[in-house]
Amino acid sequence: MNRNPLADLGNLGDYLREQRESHKLSLRQLSDLVGVSNPYLSQIERGLKKPSAEILQQLAKGLQVSAESLYVRAGILEDRPVPDTEATTVRTAIAADPDLTQRQRDALIDIYESFVGAAKPVRPKRTATRTTTTKE
Amino acid sequence: MNRNPLADLGNLGDYLREQRESHKLSLRQLSDLVGVSNPYLSQIERGLKKPSAEILQQLAKGLQVSAESLYVRAGILEDRPVPDTEATTVRTAIAADPDLTQRQRDALIDIYESFVGAAKPVRPKRTATRTTTTKE
DNA sequence: CCAGTGTGCTTGCTCTAGTTAGCAAAATGC
DNA sequence: GCATTTTGCTAACTAGAGCAAGCACACTGG
Fold this sequence. Notes:
- 2 copies of one chain form a homodimer.
- By secondary structure, chain A is an all-alpha fold.
- Chain A has 2 domains: 5-74, Orthogonal Bundle (434 Repressor (Amino-terminal Domain)), CATH 1.10.260; 82-124, no CATH class.
- The first copy, chain A, has helices spanning 5-22, 27-34, 38-45, 53-63, 67-74, 89-96, 102-116.
- The model of chain A is unreliable at 1-7, 81-87 and 124-136 (pLDDT under 50).
- Chains A and B meet through helix 4, helix 5, helix 6 and helix 7 of A and helix 1, helix 4, helix 5, helix 6 and helix 7 of B.
- The structure holds a DNA duplex.
């Protein structure tokens, strides 16, 4: 999954610079806007430094993009966290529910399986229909 | 809007410890599982250190929770990362599952709500309106 | 021609995330 | 009773994120 973090960083940096320039902001202007020093912004955009999630969050606000999209580019979020609309949905929904403890999940899935009478394996579906990389 | 990182950290740490213990893992076992040193895990759980998104991602995998939920707790993601994946999803998934009888659906939802302690009214949503037009 | 201001970038520095080595206390076994 | 292991934790350290200060180059315009 994360093969070469530096390459991904370059990608992220390019994207950030692109966004900044499309907003017609200088490094100092963006720096002032998001509260991150301008030399550091420069290094991020050139892929020399790896920004933390906090910095990315600030940048997302300043550049008016979703934080998630930056996280995905930074490699700290999966592309599409939840696929659904299938028979596996109950299982995946239970598995992904943050309000449940693991034991509760196990119990629920147990009950569910006793209901449907099946022991289907959880299949990780891949629905990657959503890359905003419209640069071609 | 005025976030207090330390308070959130305590919350995150408590949650992580809870998850780890519910999996019946020791610090060293989890350490070995997710590739993070056990002293550091200890410090994270007690709210002494603030884990990066990478660490949180590893922990999410090891503890089988969604990375998003950890990010939200860590304060680096807004509360609704995915529109309809959270609490309503288990309900809608159950309601939409063709393999269940109505009585089984009621029973499952009953159990689920007793778990999460929610008293939300069961809204007769048909199919999960999944027009997830991500803004951008 | 040289002051002023804008751009991005380099250089040191601080601070902290995350590590390895090692500790005291509790459990298990002889 | 005492070894051994396993528990969580403390201490000392390294690497790198993120900062303030300052540089070189381009523009104005006087």
